[in-house]
Amino acid sequence: MDPDPDAAPGPASTPVPEPAAAVTPEDLEDALLEGDREVRRGTAMAALAFPMFRRVWGGSLLSNVGSWMQNVVLGAYVYDLTGSAMWVSAVTFAQLGPLLLLSIVGGTLADLFDRRRLLILVALEQAAFSVVLAGIVALDDPPIGAIIVVVGLIGIGQAVHAPTFTAVTPMLVDREVLPGARICVRSCA
Fold first, then answer.
1. Three-state SS across the chain?
2. pLDDT tens for residues 3-28?
3. Do residues 98 and 67 touch, judged by C-beta distance below 8 A?
4. Among the listed residues 108, 103, 109, the one whose alpha carbon sits nearest the alpha carbon of residue 162
5. pLDDT exceeds 50 at position 138
6. Where does residue 3 fall: left (phi above 0), alpha (psi -120 to 50 degrees), or beta otherwise?
7. What is the pLDDT at residue 39?
8. Residues in CB range of 48: below 8 A, 6 or more apart
């Protein structure tokens, strides 16, 4: 007997799949680490299998998330402080202008100096100026010029960080997984 094409699907005409067992994050991690699941070479997952790359990438991702939040909040803060779109654009340029104008210089520094130490130095520089920025913002009447200067110095750090992190990536993973590592690097830059 053929099923009626006009019949509504229901329990009699549609097979009910078996409920899948709940997969926990621990199960996924065990499968990946114990080799139960094949990870293709050249993928982001293959790159993240390298512990040193995973640590450096994770730290960079967290740092960049903080920078993204700072970029958004500073625009709103400066507008509340001044009521001027011109000052918001000045702060935005101080944040992102160095990345546009000084990335080549950052790449040159990455070629001239130890990249690991340069990354650490830049991270410390950005953290120090972020603390200075917090101190300026905590003032009753924070000077907008000081905010722009400190934000510009943080931006210079980012202009050195981005090309240095890109240049250090081949040292952290095997050549076969470099395309996946580049995807990870670009995803958090």
1. CCCCCCCCCCCCCCCCCCCCCCCCHHHHHHHHHCCCCCCCCCCHHHHHCCHHHHHHHHHHHHHHHHHHHHHHHHHHHHHHHHCCHHHHHHHHHHHHHHHHHHHHHHHHHHHHCCHHHHHHHHHHHHHHHHHHHHHHHCCCCCCHHHHHHHHHHHHHHHHHHHHHHHHHHHHHCCHHHHHHHHHHHHHCC
2. 555 554 444 455 544 555 565 667 66
3. no
4. 103
5. yes
6. beta
7. 55
8. 54, 57, 180, 184
Measured CA to CA, the distance from residue 35 to residue 29 in angstroms comes to 10
* Domains of the chain by residue range: 22-50+175-189, 63-172
How far, in Å, CA of 73 to CA of 70, rounded?
Answer: 5
Q: For residue 124, is pLDDT > 50? A: yes
Hunting for tokens 């699907």 — which residue is that? 9
**pLDDT computed for residue 11 by the predictor:** 46
Question: Which residue do the tokens 């907008």 mark?
Answer: 144
- Residue 41 CB neighbours (<10 A): 14
Range 67-90 average pLDDT: 93
